[in-house]
Automatic annotation (TrEMBL):
Alphabetic keyword roster: Membrane, Transmembrane, Transmembrane helix
This protein's record includes keyword Membrane: yes
Taxonomy of the source species: Eukaryota, Viridiplantae, Streptophyta, Embryophyta, Tracheophyta
GO molecular function: heme binding; iron ion binding; monooxygenase activity; oxidoreductase activity, acting on paired donors, with incorporation or reduction of molecular oxygen
UniProt name for this protein: Cytochrome P450, E-class, group I
Length: 169
C-alpha cells in the first residue's frame, strides 16, 4: 500500500512538473514572439478585434492628415488583425518607395487569392525577385506591346462607345 501511494505521488509530481514546464515554455515562446526588436511608430489604439476600422473616415486623406498632425509623419494603424504603417510626408515616402523599395515590395496574399490564382503565379502577387522580373518582362513584351494593343483597338473603342468604360482624360 505504501509503495502504491509513493508511486502515485511520484507519478503525479512528474506529471504536474511536465505540464508546468510545457506551459512555461509556451508562455516564453509567445512572449519572445511578441517582443519586437525595433519599436513601432506611435498610433491610435484600436479595439481588440477590429482595430481602428470603426474609426476610419470615408475621406482617408483627411483622416490621415489629422493622425499625422497628432502622431507625426509616420504612424501605425491596426486594421483588423493586420498592422499597417502609414507614411504621410513626401521625403519619407520617397525613402520608403525609392531607397528601401525592395524591403517593402512584397505584399500579403490572402488564402482566397492563393486558391483562385493557382498558387499566386502572376505579376500582381508573386514576391519581388527574379521570378517577378521574368513575369513582368513577359507581360510587357507580349501582352502590352504595341502590336497587341493595336489589335484590340476596335474592341477598346467599342467598349468606350458603349459606355461600359469611361474614356481616360
Amino acid at each position: 500500500m505504501v509503495t502504491t501511494l509513493t508511486y502515485d505521488t511520484t507519478s503525479l509530481f512528474f506529471t504536474l512538473t511536465t505540464i508546468f514546464v510545457f506551459i512555461w515554455y509556451a508562455w516564453m515562446y509567445i512572449k519572445a514572439k511578441n517582443h519586437r526588436t525595433t519599436p513601432l511608430p506611435a498610433g491610435p489604439r484600436g479595439l481588440p478585434l477590429v482595430g481602428n476600422l470603426l474609426g476610419l473616415d470615408p475621406e482617408l486623406y483627411c483622416y490621415f492628415a489629422g493622425l499625422a498632425h497628432v502622431y507625426g509623419p509616420i504612424f501605425k494603424l491596426q486594421l483588423g488583425s493586420k498592422l499597417r504603417i502609414v507614411v504621410t510626408s513626401p521625403p519619407l515616402g520617397r525613402e520608403v518607395l525609392k531607397e528601401k523599395g525592395v524591403v517593402f515590395a512584397n505584399r500579403d496574399v490572402l488564402d482566397a487569392i492563393r486558391n483562385c490564382i493557382y498558387g499566386v503565379n502572376d505579376v500582381a502577387w508573386t514576391p519581388y525577385g527574379p521570378e517577378w522580373w521574368m513575369l513582368r518582362k513577359v507581360c510587357v513584351s507580349k501582352m502590352l506591346s504595341n502590336t497587341t494593343l493595336d489589335s484590340f483597338y476596335s474592341l477598346r473603342r467599342q467598349e468606350v462607345g458603349s459606355g461600359r468604360v469611361a474614356p481616360s482624360t
